[in-house]
Amino acid sequence: MQCINAAKLLPEHLLKEIQQYIQGEALYIPTCPSKRRKWGESSGAANYYKVRNAEIRSRFQEGAELYQLCEQYGLSIDSIRKIVYSKNPQS
């Protein structure tokens, strides 16, 4: 997170309004909820796990054993079960 001098960024009337509430301290302004990204969108993690889980489901349907998938993907047997038996294949 980067600090920005409000005097350089905000119009004077808005700066004076904010100074009525806080002066000389750091202020965090969160992003609008409508502009927030879902988990993993920025880093690509969500897509990585979606592709990986689809691959695990596919291999399981082709006959791969749970313990083989555990070793190949480095996941616990419970994690593999959750993936292959989930009702929502999007995750």
Mean pLDDT figure? 90
Total E-strand runs:
0
Strand content: under 5%
Shape: rod-shaped
Element-level helix/strand string: HHHHH
Give the distance, in angstroms, between the N- and C-terminal Cα atoms.
30 Å
Query: Uncertain spans, ≥5 residues at pLDDT below 50?
Result: none
* Oligomeric category: single chain
DSSP helix fraction: 40-55%
Largest sheet: none
Cα radius of gyration in angstroms: 24 Å
- The total count of helices amounts to 5
Q: What structural class do you assign from the helix and strand content?
A: mainly alpha
Q: How many distinct folded domains?
A: 1
Brief characterization of the structure:
By secondary structure, the protein is an all-alpha fold.
What does this structure look like?
Helix content is 51%, strand content 0%. It has 91 residues and is mostly helical. The protein has one domain.
Essential attributes:
about 90 residues, mainly alpha, 5 helices, about 0% strand, rod-shaped
Helix-strand layout with pairing:
Layout: H1 6-9, H2 12-19, H3 45-61, H4 66-73, H5 77-85
Helix pairs in contact: 4-5
